[in-house]
Amino acid sequence: MNRFRPDDWLASASLKLLMPGMSAAEARLEARVLLAAAFGVNHAWLLAHGQELHPCDERWQQAQDWLVRRVQGEPVAYLLGWREFYGLRLAVSPAVLIPRPDTEVLVEAALERLDLHQDAAVLDLGTGSGAIALAIAAHRPRAQVLGVDASAAALALARHNASQLGLDQVVWQCGSWWQAAGGRRFDLVVSNPPYIAEDDPHLAQGDLRFEPIRALTAGVDGLQDLAEIIAGAPAHLSPAGWLLVEHGYRQAASVRELMTGAGLVEIHSRPDLAGNERVTCGRCPTGKSAD
Ligand code: GLN
């Protein structure tokens, strides 16, 4: 076995990466992602030209360092410094939540409500890396998108992502939930807020261990921030404007109840990729938005 041959490195790395609950194929895929990223090539290149990699190439060391850190649990997205979301390559760091495929359901729901040919004021509360705001801006060039986050470090990353993607029309503002929006009203508000209960055992598992806790937890039941966002919605939505929020897989009924209590209408939930109700939508009644 020669550890400077891709096949050998991948075989040995896959064994080290194999964690409980993971299939051998998943471990092998992770090993391939690390090796390809260390060499700045794609999987097809590795397969075709892997034998040309030189044993003295210092990028073997990069792959090896990432492997050790990954075995200790660090998320792949933080090691590589990026993650793809809705077809966009986004820089990520431990200052922000790693964008999840499930959140693409929230983007889909937002895009369905935004006409390609019409102006619309859109707000993303708790934007983090800017994932949702940027996905909307990329697909709805006429939307005026504001991304808000309480973390200055997160906003710096969101701004960086916007400029890398050439989506400089998105505006960013630091502040807590509605406070940063001031007295403005929006046609569509999206949010993937923290929604995990403070004592949830999942926080001690997987990627969650490395993600910013303020982006994950919200009080004893995980509903604290969702409640604040929903309560403030009628004062910040245009008549017939939509509020779309992501939430935990067992929170849909509570979120619908909060929206009903806030006077929103047309309330309904949508499933994520695993079939769990993950996104709930509610609308400001026409002509009845609060002053
Ligand atoms: N969806 C994430 C998870 O359950 C949590 C993200 C969040 O709190 N917004 O792993």
Rounded mean pLDDT score = 94
Q: Main beta sheet, described?
A: 7 strands, mixed
Strand order across the biggest sheet?
A: 5-4-3-6-7-9-8
Q: Roughly how much helix do the residues carry, as a percent range?
A: 25-40%
Q: What distance lies between the first and last C-alpha atoms, to the nearest angstrom?
A: 72 Å
Shape: elongated
Number of strands: 9
Radius of gyration, rounded? 21 Å
Provide the list of bound ligands, each named once: glutamine
Distinct helical segment count: 10
N-to-C order of helices and strands: HHHHHEEHEHEHEEHEHEE
DSSP strand (E) fraction?
15-25%
Instruction: Supply the helix-strand structural class.
Output: alpha/beta
Low-confidence stretches: none
Descriptors for this entry?
single chain; 291 residues; alpha/beta; seven-stranded mixed beta sheet; two-stranded antiparallel sheet; 10 helices; 9 strands; 19% strand; binds glutamine
Task: Give an account of the 3D structure.
By secondary structure, the chain is an alpha/beta fold. The chain is 37% helix and 19% strand. The chain has a seven-stranded mixed sheet with strand order 5-4-3-6-7-9-8, sandwiched between helices. The chain has a two-stranded antiparallel ribbon with strand order 1-2. Helix 1 crosses helix 2 (24-39) and helix 6 packs parallel to helix 7. The structure holds glutamine (GLN). Glutamine binds at residues 97, 100, 192, 194-196, 208, 216. The site of glutamine has 8 residues, from loops.
